[in-house]
């Protein structure tokens, strides 16, 4: 899933990009550009799921950019981000899903993401009859990853998944962390989520999967932020806001 942020102010563009990375785990790549022209060019080449766009920009405004995107056949979601509320009607005329006022808070952005997720879910239809479902279930139950081929230097190590404490995404690689050391693989966190048992591995952050049985404790700071400590591992891993529910007391 590709998302695009369009804003002529670099700091605001970076801030929104960072918040989206922290709050929206399903996104694979967030593209940030500074003008409507760049947005139109990229959308013509790449399948963009959602565009978060400032309205008042030099050259093409956000509203003008949205019109051109729709005219070119863009079917993705539009979310306008602006310091001015007088453009709301014009924004919704371009089938905007939401309208965020600057400065955008994490709470308001998370509400917008949830709305986008609900819309995506309602557009997906599964048409499996009982027999098809019965055929698929055995495969699904037995398909979780058992071994990982990971590298350390020039050596390939075959690691049993049950011994892995966590996976951490870093640049083009993912680090496999065990009590014996760290290794590298090329699979993304999203790929691993599809292959691992979701009851055994929890995604606590956009870039981190942890094995539940390896969690030693979860700590909360004065601001309410959570970090996970793993058995035999020195590093503490942050829990994103959207995943704090995993550790809610019952």
TrEMBL record:
**UniProt cross-references to SMART domains, sorted A to Z:** LytTR, REC
Q: Which InterPro entries match?
A: CheY-like_superfamily, LytR-like, LytTR_DNA-bd_dom, Sig_transdc_resp-reg_receiver
Where 4-aspartylphosphate occurs, the residues are 54
Sequence ranges assigned to domain HTH LytTR-type in this UniProt record: 148-250
Coiled-coil portions:
none
Query: Can the keyword Chloroplast be found in this entry's annotation?
Result: no
Membrane-spanning parts = none
Q: Indicate yes or no for the key word Secreted.
A: no
Q: Which PANTHER family match?
A: STAGE 0 SPORULATION PROTEIN A HOMOLOG (PTHR37299:SF1), TRANSCRIPTIONAL REGULATOR-RELATED (PTHR37299)
State the protein's name. Response regulator transcription factor
């Amino acid at each position: 899933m590709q998302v695009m942020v369009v804003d002529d102010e670099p700091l605001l563009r970076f801030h929104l990009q960072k918040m989206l990375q922290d709050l929206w785990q399903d996104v694979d790549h967030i593209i940030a550009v500074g003008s409507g022209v760049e947005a139109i060019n990229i959308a013509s080449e790449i399948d963009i799921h959602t565009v978060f766009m400032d309205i008042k920009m030099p050259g093409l405004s956000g509203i003008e950019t949205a019109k051109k995107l729709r005219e070119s056949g863009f079917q993705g979601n539009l979310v306008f981000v602006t310091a001015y509320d007088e453009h709301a009607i014009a924004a919704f005329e371009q089938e905007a899903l939401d309208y965020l006022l600057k400065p955008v808070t994490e709470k308001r952005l998370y509400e917008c993401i949830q709305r986008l997720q609900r819309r995506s879910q309602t557009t997906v239809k599964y048409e499996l009859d009982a027999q098809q479902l019965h055929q698929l279930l055995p495969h699904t139950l037995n398909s979780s990853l058992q071994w990982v081929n990971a590298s350390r230097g020039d050596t390939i190590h075959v690691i049993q998944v049950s011994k892995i404490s966590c996976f951490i995404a870093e640049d083009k690689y993912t680090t496999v962390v065990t009590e014996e050391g760290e290794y590298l693989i090329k699979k993304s966190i999203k790929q691993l989520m599809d292959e691992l048992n979701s009851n055994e591995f929890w995604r606590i952050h956009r870039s981190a999967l942890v094995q539940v049985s390896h969690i030693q404790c979860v700590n909360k700071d004065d601001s309410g932020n959570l970090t996970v400590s793993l058995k035999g591992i020195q590093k503490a891993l942050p829990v994103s806001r959207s995943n704090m529910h995993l550790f809610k007391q019952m």
